[in-house]
Amino acid sequence: MLEFRGAMGVLSAFLILCFYMVVAGWSLEYIYQTFATSTFEGMNASALGTFFNDFAFSSYRPYVWLTIFIIATFLVIKVGIEKGIEKASKILMPALFVIIIILSVYVAFLPGNAEGYQFYLNFDVSKITPSVALSALGQSFFSLSLASGVLLVYGSYMNKGNIVNTSLQISLFDTMIAVMAGFMIFPAVFAYGIEPSEGPSLAYIALPAVFSQMRGGMIISLLFFSLLTIGAFTSTISLHEVLTSCLADKLHITRFKSNIIVVIMLIIGAYGCCYSLTENSLFYFGGRSLFTWFNDITSEYFLPLGGMVMSIFFGWFVSKQKVKATLTEFGMKPKFFPIYFIFVRYLIPLAIMMIMLQQFGMF
Question: Which domain holds residue 242?
C-alpha cells in the first residue's frame, strides 16, 4: 500500500509541475509586458482576452517562459537544500506576504469596492455541491503540499523540531494568505466594474483590466504578477525536489544527474501541456486538453486519494504506539494523540471517501 501511495505522490508531483510550469510562464510574460512594453495600458477586458488567447494558445512565447522557469527551478535544486531551497524560501515567502499586504491596503481605499467585499464575504450554502467540495479538497491538498510527497521528502531531512507547531503555523498562514488574496482581488474587480471570473480568466484578463484603469496601475500590475511568480516558484521548487530526491534514491545516482533527468521529463511534459492548448492540438481528447486533464486528475483524484490512503495506512497498518512515540518525540502532547488518531483512522478517510462518492453520484 505504501509503495502505491508513494508512486501516486511522485506521479502527482510530476503532473502538477507539467501544467504548473506553463501557468508560471504566463506570469513572467505579464511581468515583461507590464514593465518593458506597457502593452496593457488602456486595454479593456475584451482586448485583454484577445491578447491572452493569442499569447497562451497560439504563440511561441509560452514555451520560452516555461523553459526559463524550469531552468530557474533546476538551479535552485542544484545548489541544494540549505543554500538553495531554504535560502530561496526565506527570501521569497516574506516577499510574497509583503506584496499581498501592500495590494490589500491599496484596494481598501478604492472607491466602489464595497460590492466586492459583499460578493467575497457572502456565504451561500447552496453553492457547496459535491463537485465544489471535491475541488476545494483538491485545492487544499495542493496549497498545503499534501499527498504529493513534498512533506515526506522535507520531513526526511529533519532530525529535530516540533511538527505540531510547524503544521499549525503552516495551515494558519496558508489560510490567512488565501483569505487576504480574496480581499485583494474581488474589491478591486468590482471597483472598476469588471465581471468576476475564476482561474486564468481572473488572473490574466479581469485583473489586468483593473490594473489598466488604476492610477499607478503599472506598479500594481508588477507587484501582482511578481506575487504570482513568487508563489509559483516556491511551489515548483518543492515539487521538483520530490522528483529529484526520488530518482536519486531509486536509481542510485547523484542528485545532479537526477536533476537533469527531471528537467528533461518536465520539458517534454510541460511542452505537451502547452501545445495541448493550441487549436486542433493532437493532445486534446475527451473534450479536454492535456493541460486540463493533468490539472483535474491530480486535484480531483490523485491528491485526495493519496491523502485517504496515507490516513488508512497510518491509522490501521502502522502500530498505534509507534505513531504515538514518533509524534510525541516531535512535539505532540500525549493527551492530544487520541483525538489525532480518531481523525486519522476514521474521520479523514471517511470524509474524503464520502466527498468522492457524492461527486460520482454513488452516495
Answer: 12-122+145-285
